[in-house]
Amino acid sequence: MGTYRSAVSALALALGVAAGAGAAQAEDIVIAHVYGKTGALEAYAKQSHTGLMMGLEYATDGTMEIDGNKIVVIEKDTQLKPDIGKAALAEAYGDDDAVLAVGPVSSGVALAMLPVAEEYEKILLVEPAVADSITGENWNRYVFRTGRNSSQDAISNAVALGKDGVKIATLAQDYAFGRDGVAAFREALDGTGAELVFEEYVPTDTQDFTASAQRIFDALKDEEGRKFLFIIWAGGNNPIGKINAMDPSRFGIEIATGGNILAAMAAYKDLPGMEGATYYYYEIPENPINDWLVKEHQARFNEPPDFFTAGGMAAGIAVVEALRKAGSTDTEDLIAAMEGMEFETPKGKMVFRPEDHQALQSMYHFKIRVDPDVAWGIPELVEELKIEDMDIPIRN
């Protein structure tokens, strides 16, 4: 496996303890959740962990056991730093003897973690990091993903916005999530009749969007036809409200974006009729699992489940289904069980594509409706884009 792994294993054996696993016994099934508990994506992380635990609970009928073996979940904080994420995953596999790991939140951290899964020959179930390259050029056979990828985001949003004569500019964060998202969106627009005419990238910690907005306005203002600024953004300081305050409508420019967490969608209230596509909104899917999630989440937390809660739950269900199907915690048995595996989630059916282990799944074309009694813009369903409706490229 390599000298690093051997050294870690020897150290754990010498200490006679699995660091961080606490009172885990030999028959326990240790799952590591390696994710950015602190930092700019903390809200996403909290939802993801809540969903993961609820998914494990749901799939085990509340026992948190599989065939009498207890599921033990250990948490490790990446702090949204690739080097820390890489070390935390190595620790989970090597010291804590985790059967598999779930996470992380950030695409940049995920890309750093992929080689660790390959080194230790253990599964990393990516949720919710989005960049195409995770199940694309940087992928290895130990990587699976329940989260949607950039292409799924892009294709569904291209369906919403891509019409003859439409001109689009993009604003995205300057790292893997933003770059991969725009690249996939550009490709998805091909053949729709729409044209991507300008791309703007900014650092993730940008506070002042004045210069970026002016460049975007200058690029679009003299274009004919319907014009959109499509924003791809993760985490805090979402620019939608700030740019909308600059009145892009005076140039005939409409703002468009995908789904987001409920707090971020408060800014959507100023954009009634805005169209886009989303991964999840709690009122859209109609199935027993989503019914259970909405009811239980409301009862426990006095609020509906959010965007990343559904993803975390999908990951938890996938873990249990894989372990049951494999009848083993052996990595090769799990890979064989998971390739092509179909499983039900709050969104309905997902399928792990054998070629790249990406979960194929529905996406939802929406239009924003405003209700004065609701704190966010409500994404009302226009059309469910099912697995068979989207040709998601294989990029590895």
TrEMBL record:
Keywords: Amino-acid transport, Signal, Transport. One of its GO terms (biological process) is amino acid transport. Residues 1-26 form the signal peptide. InterPro entries: BCAA_transport (IPR051010), Leu-bd (IPR028081), Peripla_BP_I (IPR028082). SUPFAM superfamilies: Periplasmic binding protein-like I (SSF53822). It holds the Pfam family Peripla_BP_6. The keyword Transport applies. Residues 29-369 form the Leucine-binding protein domain. Gene3D superfamilies: 3.40.50.2300. The keyword Nuclease does not apply. Belongs to the leucine-binding protein family. This is Substrate-binding domain-containing protein. It comes from Microbaculum marinum.
